[in-house]
């Protein structure tokens, strides 16, 4: 299912953030020239369809003192990946957790989990916790630290075509 | 900025989702046992201090009819800057990080349609002379991230 022109206007009006005011949706609706009730309804529908994953805050890990972020990668038994992925994703120090395809022979890892800590030593300890949970269902692992942001523009709706 | 326990409770609560309602801040404030004005003031302070990078809807590119894919390349150090320039010049590249591994360049492609991912990856392989490996998401286990309360 695609988003229609009104949905796109709503997304564009809110993608930079919601107003920090007692009636944030009323402010957005007024700007768009629509009834607040219609805005609620459309936002609920966009959420139900998964276009909006959630309406929430994104914390800045660096400002929270979590300066060490490691992309940990694991070669997990395919038979157990779903069960174990859910357990790893539920850990409070893991922010993103995905199953991705291996790229053999160079890349044997199929589970990716982003680990956050205040130091690399702390991240290494968290990596140990993950290893303990995966146990013998894991044949190997590695961790990749980001050493430089080369580009970061994020996801934005493209301008309308035509 | 030093966060107190109320700030941390707010961050954790609002990562779970913000209500769609006439007075959503009042609802969340009631849950947390604080005043609505206090909640809004604290959010504003955390936003101003850069503790919160964004507050609003998080979009799923695929559900909007677009596609997303994590990609990686192994680029020799001597060639790194040239390749980074080629990769970053593409509008389809949303993020690009240097990482400590033989696969040392990791970036996300965001395109309007699924087939464009493979096409852009092939074009980048051609232009850079290094193979672009694609790691599309097969399953998502994301649950969230908690600040020590």
From TrEMBL, chain A:
Keywords, sorted A to Z: Lyase
Pathway assignment: Porphyrin-containing compound metabolism
InterPro entries in alphabetical order: AsnC_trans_reg2, HTH-Siroheme_Decarb, NirdL-like_HTH, WH_DNA-bd_sf
Organism superkingdom: Bacteria
Gene Ontology terms, MF aspect: lyase activity
Domain annotation Siroheme decarboxylase AsnC-like ligand binding: ranges: 63-151
SUPFAM superfamilies: Winged helix' DNA-binding domain
Gene3D superfamilies: 3.30.70.3460
Enzymatic class: lyase
Enzyme Commission identifier(s): 4.1.1.111
Domain (Siroheme decarboxylase NirL-like HTH) ranges: 7-53
Keyword match Membrane: no
Reactions catalysed: siroheme + 2 H(+) = 12,18-didecarboxysiroheme + 2 CO2
Pfam families: AsnC_trans_reg2, NirdL-like_HTH
Family per record: Belongs to the Ahb/Nir family.
Full protein name: siroheme decarboxylase
Organism of derivation: Pontibaca methylaminivorans
TrEMBL record, chain B:
A single MF term (Gene Ontology): lyase activity
Lyase among keywords: yes
Pfam families on file: AsnC_trans_reg2 (PF17805), NirdL-like_HTH (PF22451)
The organism's place on the tree of life at top rank: Bacteria
Family annotation (InterPro entries): AsnC_trans_reg2, HTH-Siroheme_Decarb, NirdL-like_HTH, Tscrpt_reg_AsnC-like, WH-like_DNA-bd_sf, WH_DNA-bd_sf
Siroheme decarboxylase AsnC-like ligand binding domain: residues covered: 69-141
Protein's name in the database: Siroheme decarboxylase NirG subunit
